[in-house]
Design goal:
293 residues, alpha/beta, Rossmann fold, 30% helix, globular, binds iron/sulfur cluster
Length: 293
């Protein structure tokens, strides 16, 4: 019987939370890819999203606020055959963890990073998160937000991620397909997931998004994929993706913004350039800190 990747824990997010759609999309994508639960590790930080690994029956680590990416990088480098996923909120990954998010784009280690983007710090009563636009005032704020908005898509593109996409938690069919493609992508992927938080964000609701989201894959001439065959067009494809990433407001694009299958991942790069880097060193050959390191 196919594995359904569910655990028997009670899922305790608020009623109507977009997190439920993300959880189901991840479980279905793992089931449809027929993954071995022992070959998958999920790493999370702190926030409502941080509970996701508790609810998915694969290897899981719930680690520190903002530190899920370096933890996941260590897991992936210790065993590049594992599929390693990161779940975090916009506060976790684009606030305290923003430096790690940028560094991982340059490394291209092969992580699938999902940003639960609801514009607020839901676990701590709805303070403004880095993706909230300047001047927005949700019901959880005493005054309008005084900071400008970070754009997760253009940040991920600038950082060098080789797979960048956006999904919507109430369109599980599309989100599941994006997650499957991201997990099969040989490099690191960022998926910005529009995730309504009805408890603290009364502006960006499910209805608000449904009126605005559209799918880029419905456009006949939208091809965001760089391959070895069309590598000469890589700059043009990247520029087009970056331009589309700026669209926000009345119309919000979803789907894959950019995918580069021609770039080598970090494990491939270092195994070519630094032989044996990824091999386990026998205990007797290890250098201990007592030797001065
Ligand atoms: Fe979801 Fe918001 Fe509740 Fe957190 S606080 S579980 S993000 S609805």
């Amino acid at each position: 019987m196919a594995h359904n990747f569910k655990t028997d824990l009670t899922v305790d997010w608020c009623p109507g939370c977009g997190d439920f759609g993300i959880l189901t999309s991840i479980q279905q994508s793992m089931a449809e890819l027929n993954l071995d639960p022992l070959g998958v590790v999920m790493v999370s930080g702190i926030g409502c999203s941080g509970k996701t690994p508790h609810y998915i029956n694969v290897g899981g680590v719930h680690t520190l606020h903002g530190r899920a990416i370096p933890f996941a990088t260590g897991v992936k480098l210790s065993n590049p055959n594992l599929k390693v996923l990161v779940t975090g909120g916009d506060g976790d990954l684009m606030g305290i963890g923003a430096g790690h998010l940028v560094a991982e784009g340059r490394r291209n280690t092969g992580l699938t990073i999902m940003i639960y983007d609801n514009e607020v710090y839901g676990l701590t009563k709805g303070q403004a998160a880095p993706t909230m636009p300047l001047g927005e005032k949700t019901k959880s704020l005493a005054r309008p937000n005084i900071f400008t908005r970070l754009n997760p898509i253009s940040l991920a593109l600038s950082a060098g991620y080789s797979f960048v996409a956006r999904g919507f938690s109430f369109d599980m069919k599309q989100l599941k397909e994006i997650i499957k493609k991201a997990m099969n992508h040989p490099g690191s992927a960022v998926i910005d997931i529009l995730q309504p938080c009805p408890t603290y964000n009364n502006i960006n609701s499910m209805e608000w998004y449904k009126e605005r989201v559209y799918k880029m894959e419905d456009e006949k001439d939208w091809n965001p994929v760089v391959t070895k065959e069309n590598i000469k067009d890589a700059d043009q494809i990247f520029a087009r993706s970056m331009a589309r990433a700026q669209e926000w407001g009345d119309r919000i694009p979803t789907g894959i913004f950019y995918q580069n299958t021609a770039i080598e991942s970090f494990p491939v790069r270092i195994s070519k350039n630094v032989p044996n880097y990824l091999q386990i060193v026998p205990a007797e050959q290890r250098i201990s800190t007592a030797d001065g390191y």
